[in-house]
Structure formats: C-alpha cells, structure tokens
Amino acid sequence: MITVGLIGYGTAGRDVAEAILSGQAGDCRLVSVLVRDAGKYADTPLEGCRITDSEADFFACRPDVVVETAGHEAVKRYARRALEQGSDFMVVSVGAFCDPALLDGVTEAARRQGRRLIVPSAAIAGLDRIAAAAQGPLERVTLTTRKPVKAWRGTFAEEVVDLDTITQPTLIFEGNARESSRVFPESVNVSAALSLAGLGFEATAVRVLVDPTIEKNVHEVSARGLFGEVRIEVRNTPSPDNPKTGYIVAMSVASALKNLSSPLVIG
Ligand SMILES: NC(=O)C1=CN([C@@H]2O[C@H](COP(=O)(O)OP(=O)(O)OC[C@H]3O[C@@H](n4cnc5c(N)ncnc54)[C@H](O)[C@@H]3O)[C@@H](O)[C@H]2O)C=CC1
Ligand SMILES: O=C([O-])CC(=O)C(=O)O
C-alpha cells in the first residue's frame, strides 16, 4: 500500500483524489491534501484523508509519494522538502524545472535520499519513445501546441492578441522550451516534460498558437534521430473547470501512481 499526499485541490487535484478513492490509481491511499485555505473544504468528504492548509501537518503524514497539482510556485516551494523527508515527488507543473538551479537541487535531493522525481506524461504522449530515442544520437525534437481561445484567458496570450476578435490560428510564441515554460507556466508544461525526456530545455523547439477553429487542446510532437522518426498528435478534451487543462492530466497521474504498486508496468 502506497500512501499519497496531494498538493493542490483544483481541476486536476480533485480528479486525482477521486481516482485514488475509487481504486483507479492502484494500491494506494490518499492520506493528506494541502490546500491554500482549508476553510473552503470543510464540507468536502475525503474518506480517511485530512485536508489541511498547514504545511507542517501535511508533511507530518510522511507519505510515500507527494503528488503536485498546484502550479510552479508549489513546485519551487515543496519539491525539495518532500524529497528530503523521504517521499517521492510526482510533478505535473514540470515547467518549473526550466530553472536549472531548481532542477539540480531537486534531483540532487532525490539522489541523496534514494527517492525519485517522477514526471508523468500528463497532457502529452510519447515521452517513453523520446526518452528511448535520446539514448541517441537524437537530432531534433519539436513541439507545436494549439489551444482554443477559452484556454488562453488570463495568460500571456492576452498581451499578444485580442482574444475577443481573433478568427484565424495565430502564432503567439516561437522559441525554445526554457522560454515557453517561463512564459506559459499554466499552459505549456508539456514542453518541459518533453525537454527532460529528450534534448533538454535549450534544444527543444516550441511553437504555440491560439486557434479559434478547434475545440480540443492539441499537442504535436515530432522527433528525428538514429532511431528513425516519430510524429505524435494528441487532442485533449479540455476540462470544463479549467479549459487550459485536459482530463488526461489527472488520468495520467492515476496511471503513474498505479505503476508504483503494480506488478505489470507498461511504457
Ligand atoms: N504537465 C502537464 O501536461 C500539465 C501540467 N499542468 C499544471 O498543473 C497545474 C494545475 O492545473 P489545474 O488543476 O488545472 O489548475 P487549477 O488552477 O484548477 O488548480 C490548482 C489548485 O492548486 C491550488 N494551489 C496553488 N498553489 C498552492 C499551494 N502552494 N498549496 C496548495 N494549493 C495550491 C490552487 O488554489 C488551485 O486550487 C497547472 O498550473 C499547470 O502548471 C496542467 C496541465 C497539463
Ligand atoms: O493540458 C494541456 O493540454 C497542457 C497544459 O495545460 C500544459 O502543458 O500545461
């Protein structure tokens, strides 16, 4: 039985909690959820689990794995602490690791403790192939992310285009994954996951578009190297609660948790 602590109880966090409680995440038990204001969740029944806004109470549970679904700031604040106290750290806001000092510090803490920083595929697919292909040589990895207008409200996109009048697919960013992770902390974490699997943050090329002609969140990955070539396109159904995030994010976390206790691991 694996004990799980969850940081963040928003769109992805609620679905992860539900998956654990319903048994979809394998042989694990949710022991604590860290939120910003526990008063808001006084009426939320989570069997056998404490919802708290006290970091001390949360970490006192010493879960086997801490799952983050709260954003870049939470990764900066808690990743190292979780690992140093002996938990694995499973991260969805993986773009936070565009900061090389954070990545070094956290991986070093994991190494020292014999624990792991775990990056589930979340909204993207094919990380297993890219990681295998990176055995090398791997020549090129590119990502194109396209999301409908509603996914870009409250993001950097609003500084570049008028979301109320846009009618055509419009390129709003072209650069590398280090920059895309910084510019879109809530929307292009996939670029960071891809970087960690493959060529790193500098060499992973990223394009981002606002696309008023689509309904789903679309990520296209292409890579080329000694292994051959791969092209992957995912079309994620956006969550109604947060259209930036697909349902698949929590499903992927549940699957990664299941792998921690399953005798059969795929991928
Ligand atoms: N790797 C990937 O493919 C993807 C990663 N993400 C990442 O996941 C994050 C969460 O996504 P959603 O659930 O859709 O966001 P959300 O905004 O619906 O939920 C985030 C929740 O975390 C809480 N929170 C923030 N800081 C906290 C802290 N320090 N302690 C406790 N709670 C805290 C917020 O109050 C909110 O309830 C996004 O910010 C994004 O960075 C999202 C989609 C895909
Ligand atoms: O859910 C998605 O399509 C991707 C996303 O928000 C991210 O990478 O941060």
CATH architecture of the largest domain: 3-Layer(aba) Sandwich
**Quick one: CATH superfamily of the largest domain?**
NAD(P)-binding Rossmann-like Domain
The domain tally reads 2
CATH secondary-structure class of the largest domain: Alpha Beta
User: Please, what is the average pLDDT?
Assistant: 96
Fill in the CATH topology of the largest domain. Answer: Rossmann fold
Uncertain stretches: none
Task: Give a structural overview.
- The protein is α/β, with parallel strands linked by helices.
- The chain has two domains: 134 residues, 3-Layer(aba) Sandwich (Rossmann fold), CATH 3.40.50; 110 residues, 2-Layer Sandwich (Dihydrodipicolinate Reductase, domain 2).
- The chain is 33% helix and 25% strand.
- The protein is built from ten helices and eleven strands.
- It has a six-stranded parallel β-sheet with strand order 3-2-1-4-5-6, with helices on both faces.
- Helix 1 runs parallel beside helix 10 and helix 3 runs parallel beside helix 4.
- It is globular and about 50 Å long.
- The two termini are 22 Å apart.
- The model has no long low-confidence stretch (mean pLDDT 96).
- 1,4-dihydronicotinamide adenine dinucleotide binds next to helix 1, helix 3 and helix 8.
- Its EC number is 1.4.1.21.
- It comes from Halomonas flagellata.
- It catalyses: L-aspartate + NAD(+) + H2O = oxaloacetate + NH4(+) + NADH + H(+); L-aspartate + NADP(+) + H2O = oxaloacetate + NH4(+) + NADPH + H(+).
- InterPro entries: Asp/hSer_DH_NAD-bd, Asp_DH, Asp_DH_arc, Asp_DH_prok, L-Asp_DH, NAD(P)-bd_dom_sf.
- Keywords: NAD, NADP, Oxidoreductase, Pyridine nucleotide biosynthesis.
